Amino acid sequence: MTIASKPTTGTRNALSLKPSLDFVHTPATQELAERAQAYMQAGFPVHFRGPAGTGKTTLALHVAAQLGRPVMLIVGDEEFSTSDLVGGQQGYRYKRVVDRFIHSVVKYEEDAVQQWVDNRLTTACREGFTLVYDEFTRSRPEANNVLLTVLEEGLLVLPTMTRGDSYLKVHPNFRAIFTSNPQEYAGVHASQDALRDRMVTLDLDYYDAETETMIVSSQSNLDYDAAARVVKLVRDFRDCGSYDQTPTMRACVQIARVIAQQEIMPLVYDHRFVNICMDVLGSKKNYTSRERDQREKQRVLLMQLIERHCS
Fold first, then answer.
1. Which of 95, 176, 201, 217 has the most C-beta neighbours closer than 10 Å?
2. Measuring CA to CA, how many Å separate 238 from each of 56, 101, 185, 242, 302?
3. 136 versus 101: which is more confidently predicted?
4. What percentage of residues in the chain have a pLDDT greater than 70?
């Protein structure tokens, strides 16, 4: 799934997204997109929640593109503070006036004013853009607190007392899309109940085999039948549970793209294909010498699945 994008002119950091012809429309993806669009047309923010490899970000960008408005993309980060979302005082603007009306008298006036610089949330609220906040739970909850009044009251509180307008009325065209991965634990924070209560959460899971096959074929230029073999192999490996890290659709795309580029058929007697599968799906854990038997059992199981689906 891809979205064609380009920076907009005149608005810093904004993207102009266009629905991509490469987006795979199946009943599963179409239903999710239509549900999300219905909620957003009613003015509610949408939250795509699901494990890695389920296409959360691609779907979020696809839905944003359907709205036809410029997009502000934010990726959650542990170091984010409120000012990273809203903006703040950055630097000074100096003004100096020299009065020589009387040649023997020189009068100086100097003035220094702090300059306010909007960050992406403020720009989106002011201009009515679509905000895509990817992996928002990677940011600390206190940084995201500013979103509470934005999503409920339509009011953005600016953290400064030097501006004439310390409050910003959110543009009526403003929309927000969030994504998160509930399975991750490193660098992820629990979002506050008040923020989740303001969203409509759509839970994503791994797609059906036909949808995954169509996506893999589209992303790799591999023909449908060959892509189906790769998808069946990865899905069976996922179901067996004998892995250190869940093999997602990304693993399917990686295998399919390489064999398509190298013009390799997904067949068990081609050692190149077998090696690619072992590299992509093999153990991602650093086993100790005592755990080598476990790694070998995993490789044997994977070889059996290759023989089953790629003979």
1. 176
2. 19, 84, 20, 8, 11
3. 136
4. 79
**Buried b or exposed e, range 266-288, using 16+ CB within 10 angstroms:** bebeeeebbebbeebbebeeeee
The helix/strand/coil state of 58 is: helix
Cβ–Cβ < 8 Å for 198, 154: no
Q: Distance (Å, rounded) from C-alpha 251 to C-alpha 135?
A: 21
Where b means 16+ CB within 10 Å and e means fewer, 160-195 reads eeeeeeeebebeeebbbbbbbbeeeeeebbebeeeb
- In sequence order, the 6+-apart residues with CB closer than 8 A to the CB of 35 are 202
Please, which residues have CB within 8 angstroms of residue 217's CB and are 6 or more apart in sequence? 223, 224, 227, 256
Other C-beta atoms closer than 10 Å to the C-beta of 133 total 26
What CA–CA distance (Å, rounded) separates 14 from 7? 6
Q: Which of 143, 149, 147, 125 is nearest to 14 (CA)?
A: 125
pTM over 0.85: no
Q: Could you tell me the two tokens for 7? A: 């920076």
Residue 236 binned pLDDT confidence (cut-offs 50, 70, 90): very high
Instruction: Give 307-310's long-range contacts (Cβ < 8 A, gap of 24+).
Output: 307/268, 308/236, 309/229, 309/232, 309/233, 309/236, 310/229, 310/233, 310/266, 310/267, 310/268, 310/273
At residue 9 the predicted structure's pLDDT band, cuts being 50, 70 and 90, is very low
Report the distance separating Cα 207 and Cα 286, nearest Å.
Answer: 30
**Which residues, 6+ apart, have CB-to-CB distance to 72 below 8 Å?**
13, 14, 15, 120, 121, 123, 124, 129, 130, 131, 132
